[in-house]
Specification:
single chain, about 140 residues, mainly alpha, 4 helices
């Protein structure tokens, strides 16, 4: 695999990551709309819908993180190739960007906040489906 092929695969990975971002946002809007439309159905039905939605939140988040882990792994390998002279274009890009060829790419230290946000998202979804009072009390 040439350096250009590797860059092409990494670019495709970022496109998938972007689609997951859009999909996760649309999942939130869809869950909100579904919770509102199902507000007058029996609790068991709303609970089932909440469970399905929470499962989709976990699946989407897991896929989201897997794509990102793949990106970090590919970039680390490309960085190693740049350090050994096998990827001169990436070597120049990394040096110009202030990086050091050969350094591993790691997730940022605040990455755990994504897990917390996903748990809050799931809990909010359960609340919207099962406990929210949609009608105003006068």
């Amino acid at each position: 695999m040439t350096e250009a092929d590797f860059i092409h695969v990494i670019t495709q990975n970022r496109q998938v990551y972007g689609l997951y971002s859009v999909g996760y946002g649309l999942l939130s809007l869809t869950a909100l709309l579904a919770a509102y439309l199902l507000r007058n159905t029996p609790l068991w039905f709303r609970s089932l819908a909440a469970g399905i939605t929470v499962f989709q939140i976990f699946v989407t988040y897991t896929g989201f993180m897997a794509v990102n882990a793949g990106f970090l792994t590919m970039m680390t390998e490309l960085s190693k190739a740049a350090a050994s002279g096998g990827a001169p274009m990436i070597n120049d890009v990394m040096i110009a960007g202030g990086g050091t060829p050969g350094e591993p790419f790691e997730a940022p230290p605040w990455g755990f906040l994504g897990i917390i946000a996903m748990i809050i998202h799931a809990a909010g979804t359960v609340y919207l489906f099962t406990l929210a009072k949609w009608e105003k009390e006068d």
